[in-house]
Design a protein that fits this description.
Blueprint: E1 5-6, E2 37-38, E3 44-45, E4 51-54, E5 60-65, E6 71-78, H1 92-99, E7 103-104, H2 111-115, E8 122-127, E9 132-139, H3 143-156, E10 157-158, H4 161-180, H5 185-196, H6 210-215, H7 218-228, E11 234-240, H8 244-255, E12 279-285, E13 292-298, H9 307-318, H10 324-332, E14 336-345, E15 350-358, H11 364-380, H12 385-401, H13 406-420, H14 424-435, H15 438-448, E16 455-461, E17 517-520, E18 526-531, E19 537-544, H16 558-565, H17 575-585, E20 588-593, E21 598-605, H18 609-621, H19 627-644, H20 648-661, H21 682-692, E22 698-704, H22 708-719, E23 744-748, E24 755-762, H23 771-782, H24 788-795, E25 803-806, E26 815-822, H25 827-843, H26 848-865, H27 869-881, H28 887-897, H29 901-911, E27 918-923, H30 929-935, E28 940-943
Helix pairs in contact: 1-4, 3-8, 9-12, 9-15, 10-11, 11-15, 12-17, 16-21, 17-18, 18-22, 23-26, 23-29, 24-25, 25-29, 26-28
Length: about 950
């Protein structure tokens, strides 16, 4: 629904895709629950434990009760995906997914948001190659309402022409945002799948094309629903806090009456042929800041026995900084800014891709050669036993993390069902991973990753000689529009008096907040412990009162580089040794810097947690900041900036800081700039660390499966001997600087696929007395799908994929923003809509009815954060960073409920008046500048290539 997924867009700029939802055999219909499986390092991954039954109409139902949560998730996975898009209608399954959130015969448009967001829950959906899945997580007392609603849209979806056209426009904006405005969107969204596959329908992009979206009709939509949205073509999954007998009665009541059509589901079982030889292609696109190289092979479908070995191979290849691709291309040769690989296994076929986004000054040809070299090594020699163990440990630990919440566990089951039809597959994967041998990895490399089966892709910046490559059109597909079932009599929204009323909510199940233990070590380090009784996972977060606003003048980027270098070498460990240890532990360890604070974080299975904290302490206490490691990080940071500065939204985000804060410390980009990053020396980061990373100015938060006594002993052992060097520096005075006059700034980026539009107002600190009224008002304005901004810009007008706002609090005055992306031609219209909605909150008092669902949204989101160890730790750390009492954790819901409508209006009028709002628009100015200048004659226009982020003037 909100931010929908399509299968072909899952690859990030260089993220390695790791299979989630792995565990041991846990499901056998009618059998006792099996025992949990021990991972090699002793991690226990509990089985999913779902029970199955089948309704007379063929609907398969899976349920799992968890009394430790106050929530419940309802998911419906339909066995239809983008592979089933009819010929000439690519993107159709995804478009249809959007329409499923509209009306039914008993539910007016947008009711799903009323039933979820407005009661503190959430809902979304995604379209993949083989499935379209819909899922809601709500307070447990709303379960019956969600079952009623899911059954109603399965049986009686209502779509009219205006709704169809409006939602099609939204999908076009999603296409522009995901494919056209992202510098690598065309590569991963369009060109990679069409190159890998010859005959498979997977070769078409899940999001489709503008032209084929335009070709679709309302009758197509109705026929598609009649064909695929039927009980015998779906799985219903329910997990959370419920009474099993009552749940069964509700499912029987709402789903059993649904009928299947008499028409058969169209056949779609294409067997992808074996490649007849290698393929080698080059694609071009506008605004590509760094060249990219991709090599890819068809592999196996999800249910194939070789999937486990290919998954482990992928872990060896690209997971973590000890992986082969990272060590070779990024760390040793320093020819790539980012690397990754992705094993994509679906119902009918699969593939594995390896990719490199090249560093500045290096070519795609170098990337292809380096990638080929590493793949050849996998074929020619066995991986080491240590590499095999690391890859397995990471997969097992990630499987554990992927089962923290009821919706995580339901999702793991859903993917297994869609791809195999067997619930046991979701739990069998741990045993399969554990069984992989060194010989298996080499065997699958030799079998599948051969030069003769390989596709090689170079992705380069378009120019006069090489114009932008175009999406392949008119691609045939197994399903034709003529194969779809007749639409039948269209469903219509019944008059209110004739509708079946929604069930009433049951008794509330209140979320519980843990008691937080609070103590200090002798060196002044504050330690907070928030224990939970759930999965064997523990999180640690060590936070410091030092951030990017403390960067020395003219040295923007010091805080960020200091944090990133912590994992790049200590007095006893090199960067590769640190990466290897993290991966051996199955841990997640890293560091980062925000505007006001820096933090080092770790997450590990409970048995590996003491060793993980010991490593974390070594990183903090004994970094070396070697010159060669700094040079590597500087080069990667600069390449990251080049990528960011090719994207309208990223440019707008960096520009806003200068517009609101000018030359004050808060105004400088935290990542640094292309001019400041190269000037930073090892002495700069060492001095920042010595002055700012001090136990007396730090807070260590433990959350998860750990007792206060164990946490005290662990903290003392790891950090008790830590002593600061030198005197503490003075805090940065007035980092927000003086308030500045508002500005209208356009950054002109010719050829931009979309325009980013941001309204920004100097805001408040986290400790301001009006924090809660402003937070509630911001949620009304731009927090969620049913917020005012999203209603006006996306739902009513189809001008954007989504619009939102952020209160942006900081230690000093923060920056409130309201933003979206839209086609260039409507940038000025969208800017007007954003400003009008901000103005309304400061001049018109919202009603109690306006605020009630927004309160539920905040409280529900807070409750869901409590259900993961990282989410809980983040909440506790946030209170500590702003010197707020731990009692605020339990008081949060009450503080939100206490806000009145008058307080919201007064707070916006005082702190966020629209006449103090600045506008930043980044896009192709030739398509909107004349209209915008007519409204704002004093606007400033800066060419993207001339943007100076080192100065408040931006010039």
């Amino acid at each position: 629904m909100k931010f929908r997924l399509t299968a072909r867009l899952k690859i990030g700029a260089a993220a390695s895709a790791i299979l989630m939802g792995l565990a041991a055999p846990a499901f056998a219909e009618g059998a006792a629950a099996p025992a949990a499986v021990q991972a090699p390092q002793g991690v226990t991954v509990p089985p999913l434990g779902f029970a199955k039954r089948v309704l007379p109409n063929g609907l398969e139902v899976y349920t799992a009760r968890d009394a430790d949560t106050s929530n419940v998730t309802v998911q419906v996975w339909y066995k239809v995906g983008s592979k089933d898009d009819p010929a000439g209608r690519s993107g159709f399954a995804h478009l249809f997914e959007h329409l499923m959130f509209k009306s039914t015969k008993n539910l007016p448009p947008e009711t799903f948001d009323r039933l979820t967001e407005d009661v503190g829950g959430s809902n979304n959906a995604f379209t993949a190659d083989d499935t379209t899945a819909y899922f809601e997580t709500v307070p447990a007392n709303h379960l019956e309402r969600m079952l009623f609603a899911e059954a109603d849209r399965m049986g009686s979806l209502v779509v009219d022409e205006p709704t169809f056209v409006a939602e099609r426009d939204v999908v076009k904006e999603e296409y522009r945002q995901r494919i056209l405005s992202n510098p690598y969107g065309r590569l991963f969204g369009l060109f990679v799948p069409e190159t890998i596959y010859q005959d498979s329908p997977y070769r078409r992009p899940g999001i489709g094309s503008i032209e084929e979206l335009e070709a679709s009709s309302l009758d197509d939509v109705r026929r598609f629903h009649a064909t695929y949205y039927r009980p015998d073509n779906a799985y219903l999954i329910v997990a959370g806090n419920f009474d099993q007998a009552q749940l069964d009665r509700w499912i029987d009541q709402y789903f059993t009456p649904l009928k299947n059509p008499t028409t058969a589901i169209p056949a779609n079982n294409v067997v992808e042929p074996e490649p007849t030889g290698p393929r080698d292609v080059a694609y071009y696109a506008p605004n590509v800041p760094l060249p990219a190289a991709v090599i890819a092979w068809p592999t196996v479908k999800y249910a194939d026995a070789d999937r486990a070995a290919l998954t482990v191979l992928d872990g060896v290849l690209s997971t973590g900084e000890s992986s082969r691709l990272y060590r070779s291309l990024v760390y040793d040769k320093q020819i790539a800014a980012q690397i990754g690989s992705s094993p994509d296994f679906a119902q009918q076929a699969g593939n594995l891709t390896a990719l490199a986004i090249m560093a500045q000054g290096h070519t795609a040809e170098e990337g292809v050669a380096a990638l080929n070299e590493e793949i050849a090594k996998l074929r020619d020699a066995p991986v080491t036993a240590a590499e095999l163990s690391e890859a397995k440990n990471e997969l097992v630990a990630d499987a554990l993390r992927s089962r923290e919440t009821v919706d995580d566990r339901a999702t793991a089951l859903g993917f297994a069902l869609i791809n195999t039809g067997d619930a046991a597959a979701a739990d069998a994967e741990i045993a399969q991973i554990q069984a992989v041998t060194v010989a298996d990895v080499q065997r699958v490399a030799r079998k599948y990753l051969t030069p003769q089966r390989q596709s090689t892709i170079r992705f380069l910046a378009a120019d006069a000689e090489n114009p932008a490559s175009v999406q392949k059109m008119n691609v045939d597909a197994p399903v034709k529009v003529a194969d779809l079932a007749p639409a039948g009599t269209p469903a219509v929204l019944l008059p209110e008096a004739e509708r079946t009323p929604l069930p009433q909510p049951g008794a509330e199940v209140a979320p519980a907040t843990p008691t937080v233990a609070d103590f200090r070590l002798d060196n002044g380090l504050r330690v907070l412990v928030a224990p939970t009784d759930s999965l064997p996972l523990v999180s640690a977060r060590l936070s410091f009162d030092a951030g990017t606003s403390d960067d020395p003048a003219g040295k923007a980027g010091v805080a960020m580089l200091t944090a990133s270098l912590l994992t790049q070498g200590t007095k006893t460990k090199s960067a590769p040794e640190i990466a290897t240890q993290i991966e051996q532990l199955g841990a997640s360890v890293g560091a980062g810097a925000g505007v006001d604070f820096s933090n080092v974080y770790a997450n590990a299975p409970v048995n590996a947690f003491p060793a993980t904290v010991a490593l974390m302490a070594d990183l903090v206490k004994n970094p070396t900041f070697a010159a060669e490691e700094l040079e590597r990080q500087q080069a990667q940071t600069l390449d990251g900036l080049r990528v960011a500065l090719s994207q309208p939204a990223a440019i707008a985000g960096m520009t806003v800081g200068r517009v609101v804060y000018g030359d004050a410390p808060y105004g400088a980009p935290g990542s640094g700039t292309e001019q400041t990053v190269p000037t930073i020396t090892p002495a700069d980061v060492a001095a920042f660390h010595a002055a700012r990373y001090r136990p007396s100015d730090a807070t260590l938060v433990f959350s998860g499966d750990i007792t206060p006594a164990a946490a005290r002993a662990l903290a003392q052992q790891a950090f008790g001997d830590w002593r600061p060097t030198g005197a503490a520096p003075a805090a940065t005075a007035n980092p927000a600087g003086e308030a500045l006059a508002p500005r209208i700034v356009v950054v002109n980026q010719p050829g931009a696929g979309q325009a980013a539009v941001v309204a920004a107002v100097r805001g408040v600190s986290r400790t301001d007395a009006d924090f809660f009224p402003l937070t509630l008002g911001n949620t009304l304005l731009g927090g969620g799908f049913s917020s005012r901004l999203n209603q006006e810009i996306r739902i009513k007008r189809g001008l954007s994929y989504g619009a939102n706002s952020s209160l942006g609090v900081r230690a000093d005055a923060g920056v409130f923003t309201a933003s979206t992306q839209t086609k260039n031609e409507t940038a000025d219209e969208v800017a007007d809509l954003i400003l009008a909605e901000i103005a309304k909150l400061g001049t018109e008092t919202p009603t109690a009815a306006d605020l009630a669902p927004r309160r539920a949204t905040l409280i529900g989101g807070f409750g869901r954060s409590l259900e993961t160890v990282d989410g809980l730790g983040g909440l506790v750390a946030n209170l500590a960073l702003y010197d707020l009492p731990m009692s605020d954790l339990a008081a949060y819901a009450g503080r939100v409920r206490a806000v009145t409508p008058d307080q919201v209006q007064a707070a916006f009028a005082e702190h966020l008046p629209v006449n103090q709002a600045s506008l930043v628009i980044v896009g192709d100015g030739s398509l909107f500048l004349d209209d915008l200048r007519a409204k704002h004659p004093s606007l400033e226009v800066i060419e993207a290539g001339a943007l100076n982020l080192n100065s408040g003037a931006l010039k």
